[in-house]
Write a structure and sequence with these properties.
Elements lengths: L9 E4 L3 H12 L4 E4 L3 H20 L7 H5 L2 E4 L10 E4 L5 H12 L7 E4 L6 H4 L9 E6 L8 E6 L5 H13 L3 E5 L8 H18 L4 H10 L1 H5 L4 H8 L1 H11 L10 H8 L18 H20 L3
Parallel strand pairs: 1-2, 1-4, 2-3, 4-5, 5-6, 7-8
Antiparallel strand pairs: 6-7
Length: about 325
């Protein structure tokens, strides 16, 4: 386990799926952490879920301590006064700019001016969220990928006012949580990971709409071709190893033929039909009779196995 940083009192704000898991991650890495939420019933559910997750990890031999020891480092509250003692906050509330502004206005009435503040937004610009933050130089993005306990990447994004010291401190914190952080120096929509992900998604939807291949073939092509490679090499490393000149030649004729769609009719049709994926039992695939939960479990198992292979690289 990596050493903890100087941070002593982290607060995770928001008891949704992401916030609950982040609170557990902090506790598992030795931090005394508080999970804050506006509503008590959500905190009650969060506490039960964390207890279940810790018991499951212990049963599989994946927890270094007794679950009760980890749970003892967690506290839960709806009181904004908890931010008076916080030296680090990560916000995980709704992806709504007004809601985030209202939250940080409240937090800044209580918190020390030297405490680090972060947002886990995946789509909003950090600079826009920071508009209601006092001392915005201590504010940055800290975007975790879902599920955050299994996905290594954490994107640390500097807003227009973010200091280098803040970005580095949050980067070091991510390292202490045994993640693979990157520093993003320009505040761009989608950060880095989502821009890459949606570029691939746009072309996948285009291939599907053209009728060139079905969902199974498209997913197989990604998993056993580029996706297999990208677990070890990034796209720019791939170009270096394959030959930049070759990639230049192919890009000259292929890029003009790739999709430039600004709207996916395929996604709109699925959404309008209520085919939202696992959560409704059908999306691109059918998830009837427990297939959705089986898909989640398979994903989580393979993610964990892959990380065991790659984490020391």
């Amino acid at each position: 386990m990596l050493e903890k940083t100087a941070i002593q009192h982290p607060v995770v704000a928001g008891a949704g799926t992401m916030g609950v898991t982040l609170a557990r991650i902090f506790a598992q890495r030795g931090y005394q952490v508080t999970l804050w939420n506006r509503r008590t019933p959500s905190l009650d559910k969060a506490k039960a879920r964390i207890a279940g997750d810790l018991a499951d990890l212990a049963a599989r031999g994946l927890l270094a301590e007794d679950p009760a020891q980890v749970a003892a480092r967690l506290s839960y509250t709806t009181d904004f006064a908890v931010f008076q003692q916080a030296d680090f906050v990560i916000e995980n509330i709704a992806e709504d700019l007004d809601a985030k502004h209202a939250f940080f206005q409240q937090v800044c009435r209580h918190i020390s001016p030297t405490a680090l503040l972060t947002t886990n937004t995946s789509g909003l610009r950090v600079t826009d969220v920071a508009r209601e933050v006092e001392h915005p130089e201590r504010f940055c993005g800290m975007h975790w990928w879902n599920p955050p306990d299994l996905m290594p990447l954490v994107e640390i994004t500097q807003g227009e006012a973010t200091s280098q010291e803040t970005a580095q401190a949050v980067y070091d914190l991510a390292l202490s949580l045994e993640k693979k952080p990157i520093l993003v120096k320009k505040d761009i929509l989608g950060i880095v990971g989502n821009r890459l992900q949606y570029a691939v998604m746009r072309e996948a939807l285009h291939i599907l709409a053209m009728g060139a291949a079905g969902p199974e073939e498209i997913d197989a092509a990604m998993k056993y071709g580029p996706g297999f490679r990208y677990a070890v090499l990034g796209p720019l490393e791939t170009a270096d190893l394959g030959g930049v000149d070759i990639f230049q030649t192919v890009s000259d004729y292929l890029l003009p033929d790739l999709s430039a769609d600004q709207r996916s009719q395929v996604l709109h049709d699925l959404t309008d039909a209520g085919r939202l994926g696992v959560k409704t039992g059908r999306g691109f695939y059918d998830y009837a009779d427990g297939a959705g939960e089986a898909a989640r479990q398979r994903r989580d198992r393979l993610f964990a196995q892959l990380w065991e292979i790659l984490k020391d690289q």
